Amino acid sequence: MKKILAIDDEATIRKLLTVYLGKHYKVTAMPDGLEALKWMQEGNLPDLIICDIQMPNMNGYEFVENIRSSGLFKDIPLLMLSGEEESSTRIKFYKMKVKNFITKPFNPEELLVLIKLILNEEDEIEND
Predict the structure, then answer these.
(1) pTM exceeding the 0.90 threshold for the entire prediction
(2) E-strand stretches of 31-93
(3) Residue ranges of the alpha helices (H) in the chain?
(4) How far apart are CA 99 and CA 14, in angstroms?
(5) Which of 22, 33, 85, 100 could connect to 63 by a Cys-Cys bridge, CB 3.0–4.6 Å?
(6) How many Å from the N-terminal Cα to the C-terminal Cα in the chain?
(7) Which of 22, 1, 10, 4 is nearest to 115 (CA)?
(8) CA distance 25 to 19
């Protein structure tokens, strides 16, 4: 089963991601980028990272910069999940090689489809 690291300071978002995505993936949820980075440095390598932008201790920008400058983590796909809707914010993250960006509030099914596309699991997308 593929592993997803979900980073968000809102407990309700972490719970939603864990429960909804947990039907398809092994989800680990962290409240900020600093804890997530420490967890990864302990040898935990997710197949995908979903990350909020505005968080305490280490925000999304700092987290992505750390991940992209690391030889070990730089190729892990990143998907940003944030309340920020500015095009300039999305462009900045795309330039940091973030795969996609979804704004809150979000449709969990849309997020799941994006994840499957990023992880090359197109065959598992259901056509309802």
Answers:
(1) yes
(2) 48-51, 78-82
(3) 11-21, 33-41, 60-68, 87-95, 108-118
(4) 20
(5) 33
(6) 24
(7) 4
(8) 10
